[in-house]
Design brief:
Number of domains: 1
Helix content: under 10%
Structural class: mainly beta
Strand content: over 45%
CATH topology: Thrombin, subunit H
Shape: globular
Radius of gyration: 12 Å
Strand order of the largest sheet: 1-2-5-4-3-6
Order of helices and strands: EEHEEEE
Number of strands: 6
Largest sheet: 6 strands, antiparallel, barrel
Distance between the termini: 7 Å
């Protein structure tokens, strides 16, 4: 499945670059997003490096999910595509 990184998980004073909010194509409700919990997510750089993460929880009521990555994502990752396996 294809998905787009929309934002980091953040609070009022700080953001956590290891946790990202992603929007998965075809998922538009919280009930559908719950089924993705536990799946792997892979973000690839232009040079071929991969950062792997795992879907941890739904985020909100519109079908977005929270992903915990092994390493922090760079700022260039916002708005790019990822693969949900």
């Amino acid at each position: 499945m294809k998905a787009t990184i929309t934002s980091y998980r953040r609070g009022l004073h700080r953001q956590n670059t290891r946790q990202a909010i992603i929007e998965v194509e075809g998922i538009d409700s919280k009930e559908k997003a719950v089924k993705l919990v536990g799946k792997k997510v892979v973000w690839k750089t232009l040079t071929g490096k991969e950062i792997v993460g795992e879907v941890r929880a739904p985020h909100g009521n519109k079908g977005r999910v929270r992903v915990l990555f092994e390493k922090g994502l760079p700022g260039q990752a916002i708005g790019t595509k990822v693969e949900v396996k």
